[in-house]
Amino acid sequence: MLRAGGHTRGTDEILVRGSPREGAALAPRAVVVAGLLFVAACDALLLVELWPGISGINDFVGLLAGGRAVLAGVDPYDASRWSAFATSVGQPPETSVFGYPPWTALAFVPLALLPTRVASLVWTAGGLAVAVAACVVLARRAGWPVVPAAILAGASWPAILVFLQGQWGYVLVAMAVAMLLAAEAGHDGAAGAWWGLMVLAKPQLFVLGTLVLGAAAVAHRRVMAVAAAVGTVAIGVAAGTIAYPGWIGPYVAIVLTKRGVRQTQEPTLAGLSGDVAGQVWWPVLWTIVVVALALAIAYAAWSAPAAHREKVFVGGILALSVVAAPYSWSYDHYLAVPLAVAAVGLAAAAPRRRRIALVVGVFLLFGPIAFALWESSYIRWHDTLAALVPVTAIVLTLAASLGTRSRPSTP
Question: pTM of the prediction?
Fold first, then answer.
């Protein structure tokens, strides 16, 4: 292919940024096919070797129990009945009432109609396919390389954890990408609705994100996005409350007292701050780190080409919101994958040595480093070190964005 000045591109420049059509053509088709086949092979191995043993006992089974309670006419917030019912349809529950809000139980009714393993396959394998497709679309639209996006979304350690636990990560990443693309296209109502659905799915992960993105939307006079998000959440809460009017008391007393407070062993900034600063001073350190990371995200977005600023900002806030949450686990770090895709995309335009260092750094972080940090929890009996994954992803994205502001950006 030719540059604007008539020079040919070298083979080491197949990752440089361009228009969506150009970006899709930059990587040789064989490389793209090989990369996607690698992701498919990794996921097939997971499906064949690991999924059968955990598909009936992972977190998805607990989610599915809520849908089955709806079908059976059982109140999932009746502590006198829930444990026996949940055990009979899946496994002993973690809490004496359904561990999620009632709209979650309603949302899982369609899957509850299926046998557990079939429902798990639809949720896990189907969600993975959608998340990989979403990240590939994000990369293509930005003119970024699609193979790294597919590998990060489909074969990174956070992706594997989501698969094993049957958690929300795939669906949340797909919705986050849909929200971002809708916002970039000027469809503020759709963007807000997607964010509202994410908040309904796992509210504790998006407290900080809601505050920051909501403030940014208001500052940019995108009030429709805020209204759509609030309306979506209101509809979900209303539907759940109509179905189970007495849910709030048991949920707050039994579930929020456990999941709505700082957990010392979790891979969050609160847990990590406690390790460093102790029980008294951890809020101070938490505040300092959150503010510093927020400023890093803002500067990275400002440093990026205009067409990519929203991707960097939203991706960074997603990662920060998850790690700053009072209750989250290593599988929730999958929400940092869109930011990692942006880091690789921005690094693609850097000088060769810097590009290689940044791309290798991202893949090491989301591969062996993330696994090692997670594995350390079995030695330390604390999973707090894994909080360094989204934190480091923010730092790498900042490093990748530096110097890109003056370069041509995707129209």
Answer: 0.87
